[in-house]
Amino acid sequence: MKSFKLNIKLWSYLAAFLMVFTFAACDDDDNKGGTFDTASLETLITEAETLIETTEEGINAGDQKPGSKAELQSVIDWVRWKIDNAEAQADISDAAVKLQRYIDIYKANVVAVAMPWIQQENDTYIQISDNIKTVLGGAWTIELKCYIVDLNTKGYSNNLFAAEQMGPDSGFAARYFSDGKIQIVTGNSNWVDSGDQAGPGTMKSGEWMDVTMTSDGTHHELFINGAKVAEVDNTHLLAADAPFVIGNSPTWTDRVCNTLVKDFRVWNSVLDESTINANRTASFEGTESGLVCYFPLGSDLGSEFSDVSGNYTASIKGKVEWVAEPPVIVLDKAKLQEAIQELTDFKATIVEGDQDGDYPAGTIAYIDELLADANDALANEGRQSALDDKADALVAAIEVINSMLVADSDGILVDRDVASAIGLRITPNYTPQGDYTVEFNVKVKSFFGYGTGEFFNNGEYGIWVYGYTELTEENVLNTGRLWNFTNAGNGWQGPRAEAQSIKSGIWQHVAIVHDDAARTTTIYVDGVAKGVQEDIGAPNVSGWGEMWLGNGWGKMDGYIKDFRLWDVARDEADLDADIAGSEAGLNVYLPLDRVKGVKFADETGTYQAHMRGISWNVVED
């Protein structure tokens, strides 16, 4: 019986405990959302709802950033749920802290006054969505304001806006150069530009300028600050595979500007000059008739955003920074100053001579050129990257000079595998206008990895050798062909040599001989005629500033020496003959059998040769 009584007492205690727990649980349920102090939290809710009601979202400075209202409303909704489901006063306090934090975020989430600064690095631009090309396939007008930080070019040009591609050559661009010249260029399987119509000084740095281009499909005009400065006639073939971008080319992406841009507009018609001039100071809502695309670009919207209409998007690529005003560039010149001093100290150690191991004659003059160029950059260059690149080049020049001491040489090496190897630059350019002979010795390292390589080129005539990019028996057997390409006024002509005319790993002699009276040009390999072009004149006078050995439009891979350019048609028996260097009709002569440093004169004293990233093929003892 005692044991039974103890169990009864135990159950009594358990029943009492369960009753207390149940009552407490019921009390907690009754407290949810009903008995806590929510006055401060309700005040915050009212403040948040008022902000949503009284502010506007948009893409202009001062607007709330798109999406910020929805974000704050979602927090309000959560807070109201929390009030209804709170289990303690601490939950109300936590909700108030969270809502206050998001109110502060909302107040700060205002579109800031800012403009995109497109900085001069490859692959940097603002890309507009491809649906803009539907408009660009018809008649159109593009308007843009730009503030050029500096006019310097990184690549061939600075493209303000472009949609251009190769193969076929198509699209268009508005591009300016370091002298302030600006062109429009259009493609329709060939490129046509407006030349020098808008000459040097048209574009200026350090001020806002209005740039407008119009196109009706065949006639294109360019306006600067409301005045027409250039025009070109050429049927516009839309670039099918390249996007439209601002601040660069979509294809040659080193043609990048250093500029701020704003007020980008595209109209679906050709605006006249008076309208273009009036638009410079007009305000736009984006709903105007004919205005199909409008990016004010006056506020920081991040890396991807829509235009006013919501129909087009812009994507920021590369180094683009949103800034409130044009930058004040503060340059660090210390690195270049140190490099100048290092090269100056090195120059003091140079003793020139003609014995093996000496510094070649002309080394000091070459260093003086480098120093003069560096000091000019120190005084006038506006880009930090260009100053630093110049400093690196000066320091590297010391190593290059030390690698080119006097010694016997078996020609020069243009190594295609070395990206910095360009070729031998010969100045000034010369184009024979009557009889001529070009001859040299060449040894190809390899035919693999390129379609064509060039032994010689002056822009209007030269010699290609054909290689291959895909390893097949057919491709290998088809290598070693030559073409003496010549523009003599009737398009590209010139004799060709059959496959296997040039072989790899051996020295061979190549010559082209033009007889102007007979109007023939013959190509020779090792003294044997391999091809002839009839009814051909002398090449057009080149517009290039130089001639090249080992490059031009395509780099060779191998060695070249004993280059001669004659103003006479040499007899077949006289090709590759021993010469003294003073023969009549010998215009350019570069034996390349003795190391002469980085920059040196040819044997006639008329021409300067410059080793651009290439090396001497020094004869080992």
TrEMBL record:
What PROSITE patterns does the database record attribute to this sequence? Answer: PROKAR_LIPOPROTEIN
Instruction: Read off the InterPro entries from this record.
Output: ConA-like_dom_sf
Task: Enumerate the UniProt keywords alphabetically.
Answer: Signal
List each coiled-coil range.
none
Signal peptide (UniProt feature, chain positions): 1-24
Q: Which Pfam families match?
A: Laminin_G_3
Q: What is this protein called?
A: Concanavalin A-like lectin/glucanases superfamily protein
Native species? Marinifilum caeruleilacunae
